[in-house]
Specification:
Growth Hormone, Chain: A, 18 helices, 77% helix, mainly alpha, 381 residues
Length: 381
């Protein structure tokens, strides 16, 4: 859904497409804010599954595209870092609220804040639109011209529908249009594979290994969120112009691998807290990667490009628990092939290492609007 939503935002504006995910995401919260009996929990999960198809990741994707519309390339990586830092700060506030509020009050507050966010967006966010037909987008133009050459008799209505719905051919063309964009997609996949694995496995690992309880889990989340907020709001704007987003991406991925390596060989319960504190550097990777991607496409393709990367990341997040959760359970059990309880965490770190190695091959990023035009490889259907 992310490439479709991003592509539609390129044509109809970010504000119009932001309204949908921000509105539907309120529904599940309202259900549990009203009641938390068994039937309401089932209703919550049903609506949560449906709304997540539209809202999960789309707000971040469209927000990044909106920032790219309004910020010059030289300042974009710092702006993306600030945006991520605000998100991390919101995560810290949410974690604190969940810890000190009762479950009933927590869902009521969450539903209220979601409503305020949607109303604020509708009232104060200025729309960004571009003049001209959607075929002004080079990637869509190259594919649409090829389709027109193959079937001159198709109706204009079908062409319009084709322009609005990105096909797999268009997505492949977008990734093949720039070598840097293809490399960034691989980095996004393996980095998200590692992130999904650590989210699915680390808490289970810490509970089984060091008997962590919910308060200790909350403490580690607060340390990570606070460090990420400080790092992205203050360190990134200072470091990015000096060392460049490409090097900062590699630094973030390297620290991500190092943190997982330390977790895998942790010998005491205090080690994960130290690792969480060191995570202040690993949060550089996502804003830098998104900034690199934004510079490879034209202004009318920001939504589709960010949506494509979000879709790849979501795919990795689906695959990751299927691999690493059973692996974690196996090596924490009595049937482990060898005595290494943190082996699954090490494997997650290897995925991050692959992303780090791939990031080293990414060249200096420039605006890629001209790179997409006339790409003959995209015309193979």
């Amino acid at each position: 859904m992310m490439p479709l939503i991003g592509n539609l935002s390129d044509m109809y504006g970010r504000k119009a497409l932001l309204t949908l995910p921000m509105t539907v995401s309120i529904i599940p919260l309202v259900i549990l804010a009203y009641d938390r009996t068994t039937n309401f929990f089932y209703a919550y999960y049903g609506f949560r599954i449906l709304t997540a198809m539209i809202s999960e990741g789309s707000v971040q994707c469209l927000a990044l595209a909106y920032v790219a519309d309004n910020i010059s390339e030289g300042q974009r990586v710092s702006a993306f870092g600030v945006l991520s830092g605000i998100g991390s700060g919101a995560f810290v506030c949410g974690t604190l609220a969940a810890r000190f509020l009762s479950p009933a009050r927590a869902f009521q507050v969450a539903a209220g804040v979601s409503m305020v966010a949607a109303v604020y967006m509708r009232l104060f966010l200025k729309e960004t639109t571009y003049e001209g037909d959607a075929l002004a987008m080079p990637i869509l133009k190259s594919v649409s011209d090829h389709d027109t050459a193959q079937s001159d008799g198709q109706s204009s209505r079908k062409v319009q529908v084709f322009k609005k719905i990105p096909s797999p051919v268009q997505l492949i063309c977008l990734l093949k249009s720039s070598k840097i964009l293809s490399q960034a997609a691989l980095v996004a996949f393996f980095n998200s594979l590692a992130d999904g694995g650590i989210q699915a496995s680390l808490l289970y690992f810490l509970k089984a290994r060091f008997q962590f309880n919910k308060d200790q889990f909350a403490d580690t989340m607060l340390i990570v969120g606070t460090g990420a907020t400080i790092s992205q709001l203050f360190f990134m704007p200072m470091l990015a112009p000096v060392i460049g987003e490409n090097k900062l991406l590699s630094i973030g991925l390297f620290f991500g691998f190092s943190n997982m390596l330390l977790n895998s060989i942790a010998w005491a319960a205090w080690v994960p807290y130290v690792v969480c504190a060191l995570g202040v550097f690993s949060v550089f990777s996502i804003p830098c990667l998104r900034s690199i991607v934004s510079k490879q496409v034209g202004p009318n393709e920001q939504g589709m490009a960010q949506g494509c990367i979000s879709g790849i990341s979501s795919l990795a997040n689906i695959i990751s628990p299927l691999i690493f959760s059973p692996l974690t359970a196996l090596f924490l059990s009595q049937e482990a092939p060898f005595n290494f309880p943190g082996f699954s965490i090490l494997c997650i770190g290897l995925a991050s290492m692959i992303a780090f190695i791939q990031s080293l091959t990414i060249g200096v990023s420039h605006s890629g609007s001209s790179n997409i035009v006339g790409n003959n490889n995209c015309m193979v259907a």
